[in-house]
Amino acid sequence: MLRFQLVDANTAPEASVETIRAVEAAYGFLPNLIATLGNAPAAVQAYASVSSAFEGSSLTPVEQQVVLLTTSVENECHYCVAAHSTVAKMVGAPASVIDALREAESLTDPRLEALRSLTLAVVKHRGWVPEAEIQNFLDAGFTKAQVLEVVTGVTQKTLSNYVNHLAETPLDEKFAPFAWSRSGAVAATAS
Questions:
Q1: How many structural domains are present in the chain?
Q2: What is the domain range of residue 110?
Q3: pTM for the whole thing?
Q4: Are 147 and 161 a contacting pair, CB within 8 Å?
Q5: What is d(CA 167, CA 147) in angstroms, rounded to the nearest whole number?
């Protein structure tokens, strides 16, 4: 499997350093995903830009995590499921929502379920989403603009999911309590 060096502000290409420093300052540590992406300035800058844009979307922080976790579970990204389970807990997502997302199960909240369902349809159908899924999303109170915001979140996670698959990015200690695999997810209530 193709693997990449984990770089930091001292070892990364010069064009990656500003992004690496900004992420490290924002999170208080340098996540291994960014340390991997930092090998390619275009990749780390693209991820940081799309991530920032999605964070500025009209979706709530919990709704954003529904998109990011749904995409990561469907793409079977062990790293991102653990990372976004951690973030989902930090932004106040109920453990029952986090657990259901990690198990690829329907959510009991109709609005969040419509969001999860649309996200899953975007990933599975590669953007060719059945009209009924879009209508269900709109009927749940979302807007047409938010359809595009979901695509933005899926784009963010597709980039990181694929990088993590290629690089076999090691899981950060901070995300370890939410370690995940398709066949043996650790419950979100574990930590």
A1: 1
A2: 59-190
A3: 0.94
A4: no
A5: 30
